[in-house]
From TrEMBL:
Keyword Membrane appears in the UniProt entry: yes
Full protein name: ABC-2 family transporter protein
Keywords on record: Coiled coil, Membrane, Transmembrane, Transmembrane helix
Coiled coil regions, renumbered to chain: 48-102
Lineage summary: Bacteria, Bacillati, Bacillota, Bacilli, Lactobacillales
Keyword DNA-binding attached: no
Top-level taxon of origin: Bacteria
Organism: Streptococcus merionis
Transmembrane segments: 21-40, 168-190, 211-237, 257-282, 294-311, 345-367
Length: 375
């Protein structure tokens, strides 16, 4: 317990760590202000523009079909298509009016009616278009079943539970955040080698494995608790600002499946903590090899940014699922859901924990056999 307090104080009093923790707070607060306050009006305008564009296209379609029917009135196919196009046009007109009145419940209801209309016109139930529309209908019905409020678009709610969960999923998988965390937690051992503090550790029993484990755990724990605390504050602020919402609110994944925002928040936090342990254990391992903080931090940053650079390349797609950097955030798993197995979250936990354990064992061996030589 004494060594735990010592490590905690050492980490919090480090000037570099204070700056990085402050930057982390500013980034999270800045992203929240930009996304939920400053950009809110622009998003509403975009939704209105899309509704007007859809109505304009529908009107043009009706006009084109009317011309075809007037030329050949015996064409049953064009006649049926014209009737459906007029129904869609009427729905789109009502949708535009509901958006202008900010009646999102009515807008969502009309959108669901439109999806049902489109679904009836698709004969192939195995087609991607059919599955996409069916997923949107399931999304609407799920919101109805829990009595939650609808929004103007899918995966876009102002409730606190939804905003907090979506933010966790996206921000905690960000390369920028992971790089900042690397600067925070990866040099706990190398900095002590450089400052010569490590030579005093044998005097207080610091060569024991539990002390090396505390050097791994304390930085990860501080970053995790700070992040969880920030998101809790953002959740409360958004809740009082709009509404707290329901943790059972659905989120439509890219593969068409639904997941509750509560599940997304929990998985994001779990994987975030495990990612912190992995980055910390990787930092320890590299520290005991290179013994220079800049080298350790630089190598991990190169790994992270290099992976982010290549991750969009087509040739890299079959490879990246075998690399640990693919699993450092739940948002990354969701984005790559098409190339990852169904149990990718479980795989991520086992993979990162296993690597962290192996790296810790190797670091333990190097740490116990490390001898400080001055000069």
């Amino acid at each position: 317990m004494v060594f735990f307090k010592f490590e905690l104080k050492r980490f919090l009093k480090n000037p570099k760590n204070k700056i990085c923790l402050g930057i982390l707070i500013v980034i999270f607060l800045g992203l929240f202000i930009l996304n939920e306050i400053l950009f809110a009006r622009s998003f509403s305008n975009i939704e209105l523009d899309i509704a007007r564009q859809n109505l304009q296209q529908s009107t043009q379609m009706v006009s084109t079909l009317e011309q075809k029917v007037s030329v050949d009135q015996n064409n049953e196919k064009d006649t049926i298509a014209l009737e459906q196009a007029k129904i869609e046009q009427k729905i789109l007109e009502e949708q535009l009016l509901s958006l202008e009145k900010k009646d999102y419940e009515r807008f969502a209801q009309l959108e669901n009616n439109l999806n049902y209309l489109k679904l009836k016109s698709i004969s192939d139930q195995n087609s991607s278009e059919y599955k996409s529309i069916k997923a949107k209908i399931d999304y609407y019905e799920k919101i109805e079943s829990i009595g939650a409020e609808h929004s103007a678009s899918i995966n876009n709610s102002k409730s606190a539970s939804f905003v907090a969960s979506k933010s966790m999923m996206g921000w905690l998988a960000s390369t920028t955040i992971l790089v900042l965390l690397t600067v925070l937690i990866s040099d706990s051992v190398s900095s002590e080698i450089e400052s010569s503090q490590i030579r005093f550790y044998p005097l207080i029993g610091g060569r024991k494995l539990r002390y090396l484990f505390l050097k791994l755990l304390v930085p990860a724990m501080v970053c995790f608790l700070l992040t969880a605390g920030l998101f809790s504050l953002l959740y409360l602020f958004q809740g009082f600002r709009t509404n707290f919402g329901a943790w059972k609110y659905p989120y439509l994944l890219p593969d068409g499946t639904l997941e509750t925002v509560g599940s997304i928040a929990l998985k994001s936090l779990i994987l975030y903590f495990i990612a912190l342990l992995f980055l910390s254990s990787l930092g320890q391992f590299l520290s005991l090899i290179f013994k220079k903080s800049l080298v350790v931090i630089g190598l991990i940053v190169v790994f992270l940014t290099g992976f982010a650079t290549f991750s969009q390349e087509e040739w890299f797609q079959p490879i990246k699922k075998f690399l640990p950097f693919e699993y450092l955030g739940y948002g990354q798993l969701v984005n790559d859901i098409d190339i990852l197995p169904n149990n990718s979250f479980t795989i991520a936990i086992l993979y990162l924990l296993s690597l962290s354990f192996v790296l810790f064992l190797i670091s333990s061996y190097l740490y116990q056999n490390f001898f400080y030589r001055k000069g």
